[in-house]
Amino acid sequence: MKGFIKHTILLFVFVAPIFTKGQAPDSSLVHTLEQYIDIHNLYPAGDIIQKIEEVYPIYSEQNIHFLSLKCTYLAALGENEKALTLALSMKRLLLPNHKNYRNNRIIVHNRINDGYYFNKQYDKCQTVLDSLILWIQDKDMYQPRTNMVYQIQKGILYEKTDRLKSAIEMYEKAEALIPEVKDSILNEILYGNFGVTYRKLDNEKRAWFYLEKAGKYVNRQDSSASFTLYNVLWKHCINFKKMQEASLYRDTVSVYYNSTNFDNRRVWFENNISHYNTLNNKELSFKYIQQYQQSLSKRYEKKFSQEIEELSASLKRENQLRIDTISIEKQQKLLRIRTNYAILMCIIFGLGITAALAMNNIQKRQRKMTYIELEQQLLQNQLNPHFIFNTLANIKGLINQNKNNIACNYLDRFHTLLLTTLIDNKERSISLDKEINAIESYLELQKIRFNDRFEYTLSNDIKVPKTIHIPPMLIQPFIENCFKHAFTEKHIEGKIDIHFIQKKEDIYCKILDNGIGLKMNSIVSKQSLSTRINKERLELLDSRYKTKGEVIIRNRTDGIAGVEVTIKLPYNIILS
Fold first, then answer.
1. What pLDDT is recorded for position 304?
2. How far is CA 544 from the centre of its chain?
């Protein structure tokens, strides 16, 4: 369902700029740029924008059409803040006495409307959208299609801010314009959003009615749109237990599978798993679980290989530059040796300073290289393959026992853990909220593996965990040690207590287990590779984060056998 909403909000960028036609300067480059943006071909569009900015005096009223296209280009790249900044700067180009002032005013405010929407400033977006609707009531400006576009946009805005009944009212106003407008793309978007909104209102019958109507208007040449909508219809068939129709939609979706991106394919895998679970076909359901896991692995293995190749090429260039620099310094030294003794002493003194600076730079580069290598090692060791296979086997066992609800719950946990491990951890930092969710998913999956032989508590005293960002995969390796070392004795009923605590400016994670303690398991000598890597990472991350991190591992001091790990977390505050 989220994929369909993401598709429909493209209305703000690729359908709304109705008033831009005919306002561009008389330039073949600008017309070519417009064509590339219309078909979402962004790489050549970027080259053309650069060429135009080199030739034309861009910031004038007659070039508002070009600037509008550039805003659309930036939004398509996901650079929404830059697009909004550019749109707001265009307001100063509007001249009330200009012959195209009214058209240009609507063009500029269309772009500002887009910018506020994609930057999630919904209150400001609604203010601008209300102004646009008011302006097009002018008899010289009014167009039925324009009015329909704005009604749909306002409905999407209401749906986004959970004003669902108001959204339905706006869609009904837009629907009244269909006989006059006759635009299949707008009809598809309108009826699709009708269905999404009724689904949120738990009115499955009306949701199904409108989604089927949207399907009649899909342009099957647009593989991404067709794939998205038919996935939604397929999912609804499964929910309504209409398995014959679900199979037909599954066959239709499969036609577009190879021409869509990975995120759309993820929905395809999830629907297949749900489809065959509903049919009680456990073998095919498990087959798609395995294919999904393999697809994730191949995707990120390829991406990591590309990053390593780019890093290797960068290091080679740096080494060559350093060699060239040393060669020049040697030539300069040989030249100066031929001068008198006084000049020679000055040169030696200067070379000493240069050598000290060079050593300092080399040490900095070595630290940077070490940090990158540690991150790579951590990514390679962050999720144990044995753990993955055990988890999949346990989920398969639950399916074989007809415990489908429990299996789906643990599958969701496994899905959350994979996303955090393979996707979010490629970033330099992750929100504390996501890290806590990943930890909880990991512990729930371990409970399956250990047949509920341990319990855990997870408490969080941090007020706003979404805004606090920490290094990824920093805490999980220490929890993993509990299973590797603390609970080796079969008679131990394991318990792990995890607490997130804030003391003034510092944030701590405290992990306590009731295992055999440090003396018996020699955890200092047996600590995992990922634990050692995390300790080394903390030593290198001081300059990047607001606070300095550290780790203390010791036996518990509260009279209970076991180990206490206290991690002072390095963090930054990032406001969304």
1. 52
2. 21
Distance in angstroms (rounded) separating the CA atoms of residues 365 and 202: 57
Q: Are strands 572-573 and 468-470 parallel, antiparallel or unpaired?
A: antiparallel
Given a contact cutoff of 8 angstroms between Cβ atoms, the answer to whether 111 and 119 are in contact is no
Rg (CA), the chain: 30
Question: ∠ CA(282), CA(283), CA(287), 5° rounding?
Answer: 115
- To the nearest whole number, what is the mean pLDDT of the chain? 76
Overall average pLDDT of the 128-152 stretch: 83
Give all strands (DSSP E) within 442-530, no chain letters.
454-460, 468-470, 494-503, 506-513
Query: Residue 572: enclosing H or E segment and its boundaries?
Result: strand 572-573
- Per-residue model confidence as pLDDT tens digits over 160-209: 889 999 999 999 998 898 888 888 778 888 888 888 888 888 888 888 88
| pLDDT tens readout for residues 346-363 | 777 777 788 778 787 777
Please, how many CA atoms are within 13 Å of residue 308, restricted to the half-sphere of its CB? 13
- Edge-first strand order for the sheet with 430-431 is 430-431, 468-470, 572-573
Q: Which two tokens stand for residue 217?
A: 């208007």
Average pLDDT over residues 46-58: 75
Amino acid at position 410, single letter? Y
DSSP 339-386: S-HHHHHHHHHHHHHHHHHHHHHHHHHHHHHHHHHHHHHHHHHSS-HH
Summarize pLDDT for 432-443 with one digit per residue, the tens.
888 888 888 888
- The answer to whether 289 and 392 are in contact (CB under 8 A) is yes
The Cα–Cα gap between 111 and 407 comes to 46
And the tokens for 425?
């951890």
Task: Kindly tell me if the per-residue pLDDT of 510 is higher than 90.
Answer: yes
Dist. CA 280–CA 288, nearest whole Å: 14
Q: End-to-end alpha-carbon separation of the chain, Å?
A: 24
How far apart CA 395 and CA 397 sit, in angstroms, is 5
Question: Beta strands 454-460 and 494-503: pairing type?
Answer: parallel
Residue appearing with tokens 């047996």: 526
Picking from 470, 474, 471, 485, the residue whose alpha carbon sits closest to that of residue 531 is 474
Sort strands 494-503 and 506-513 into parallel, antiparallel or unpaired: antiparallel
